[in-house]
Amino acid sequence: MSIKAVLFDLDGTLLPMDQEIFTKSYFGKLTARMAHLGYEPRHFIKTIWECTAQMVANDGSRTNGEVFWDGFCRVYGEGARAHDAELDRFYRTDFQAVKEDCGYDPDAARAVRAIKERGLRVIVATNPFFPNVATESRIRWVGLEPEEFELYTTYENSRFSKPNLDYYREITEKQGLKPEECLMVGNDVDEDMIAEGLGMKTFLITACLLNKSGKDISAYPQGNFADLLDYIDTL
Q: Engineered SS bond to 55: which of 4, 64, 97, 103, CB 3.0-4.6 Å?
């Protein structure tokens, strides 16, 4: 079966980055912005990570955003929900400076547009830990517009996270696709290549490779964005 859609991971795939540098910059700016509301930085970061783990464990009964805020308010109280507006302002302002701590590969945007010109559908399949506003910003950092994708996963519209196969299943069901009609493109062996377990084809972008479990990657189609286009043409 030929493919109909290409799913792209974002961080480390379309948007080159060193994950540790990105995280340090992101949290540094976020804690500085939220400090005036009484959030002690170390405890705040610890809580964010705990809530992220809860999103990873989401059973699908709620959106990831609901899981996040429920967990956050268990720590800081229900009044903390009112600070969602401050977070939104952060993502629209201070967060934009984090772009300077990411790389840029013009071939990423060119590849997405070339794939669309081939008549294929394109989706951003990024781990849905961020709200819409943050994900839309990161897409723009790539040199693309959110509207160029038929879907980009965020904590508002997703009920599962990588590496749960239900994350990929939710995308295909929502978009009316069969897994066999999809190609998942990513840089993380554990979180992106796992999509083959659902029946998707996969392609590993190696510039910012993540392989925490040290798996043998020799069997995966892999390379840069030019190699990706060549691989798609063989399909």
A: 64
